[in-house]
Specification:
This protein is α/β, with parallel strands linked by helices. The protein has a single domain (11-242), classed as NAD(P)-binding Rossmann-like Domain (Rossmann fold). Helices cover 47% and strands 14% of the residues. It is built from eight helices and seven strands. The protein has helices spanning 20-31, 48-54, 68-77, 101-129, 151-172, 189-193, 204-216, 225-242; strands at residues 11-15, 36-41, 58-62, 83-86, 133-138, 176-181, 220-221. A seven-stranded parallel β-sheet has the order 3-2-1-4-5-6-7, sandwiched between helices. Strand 1 (11-15), helix 1 and strand 2 (36-41) form a beta-alpha-beta unit. Helix 1 crosses helix 7 (204-216) and helix 3 (68-77) runs parallel beside helix 4. The radius of gyration is 17 Å and the shape is globular. The relative contact order is 0.14. The model has no long low-confidence stretch (mean pLDDT 93). One of its GO terms (molecular function) is oxidoreductase activity.
């Protein structure tokens, strides 16, 4: 189930395009020859700098993962999309024994899991109508390994990773590649808020890694040092179980 995808001359949509990993993905896609990138954000004023810099190669579009109507609207207005990158997400620190863990989990499920489902449901038909393409989901090393301080975040990303696996099987039927990205600490506002700035690595590792993984038709991407170490330990299981063909008969 290998579907290589080249970003050159393609149209992309990136959620959370205004900063961090999302902004880096936009810049990297354009540098590698993407024809146009939709900047999908909650606040259109946050992408003014990108619009000024890239002019007619980028198009701001309103999208909020917690508001289904904005996702449906974005899909209706971006009918030329070939690749969707669902990068936007939320991290709310809470350990399992804290009372705050339940509302924290609820919020992260709403954004990180339900948001993914809404994106896939709205954009899969668009990708199919355009002959297939690619759907990239930003998961995390936390989807494979939980930590007490980030337990609710890890749970939401584990759920998102599970859904990403199912999407890989379903979207292959319409010639759409699915890529599950599992970064470790990356130099973003989210990493700073989580207290991981000292070990965080450049956002460019994720963006460049996505280009390379899509070109090769890979399903998993472990872009940074911590992620690569975990990915190496996980590789055998991933190849034999997660990426193995599924007999549905």
């Amino acid at each position: 189930m290998t579907i290589p995808f080249d970003i050159k001359n393609k149209v992309a949509l990136v959620t959370g395009a205004n900063r961090g990993i999302g902004k880096s993905i936009v810049e990297t896609f354009l540098a590698h020859g993407a024809r146009k990138v939709y900047l999908a954000v909650r606040d259109l004023t946050t992408v003014t700098e990108l619009v000024n810099r890239y002019a007619d190669r980028v198009t701001p579009i309103h999208l909020d993962l917690t508001r289904p109507e904005t996702i449906i609207g974005a899909a209706a207005n971006a009918q030329d999309v070939n690749v969707v990158v669902n990068n936007a997400g939320v991290l709310k620190n809470a350990s399992p024994l804290e009372p705050a863990s339940i509302p924290a989990l609820d919020l992260q499920i709403e954004v990180n899991v339900n948001g993914l489902l809404r994106m896939a449901q709205s954009f899969a038909p668009v990708l199919k109508a355009n002959g297939g393409g690619a759907f990239v989901q930003l998961n995390s090393v936390a989807s494979l390994r939980s930590f007490p301080a980030f337990a609710t975040y890890a749970a939401s990303k584990a759920a998102a990773y599970s859904i990403t696996q199912a999407l890989r099987q379903q979207l292959a039927e319409q010639n759409t590649a699915v890529l599950s990205v599992h970064p470790g600490p990356i130099a973003t506002d989210m990493a700073n808020e989580a207290g991981l700035s000292e070990v965080a690595e450049p956002v460019s590792l994720v963006a460049e890694g996505i280009i390379e993984a899509l070109n090769k038709g890979e399903f998993h991407l472990f872009p940074d040092s911590m992620a690569k170490e975990l990915g190496l330990a996980y590789k055998s299981f991933a190849e034999k179980v997660i990426e193995a063909p599924v007999d549905t008969e």
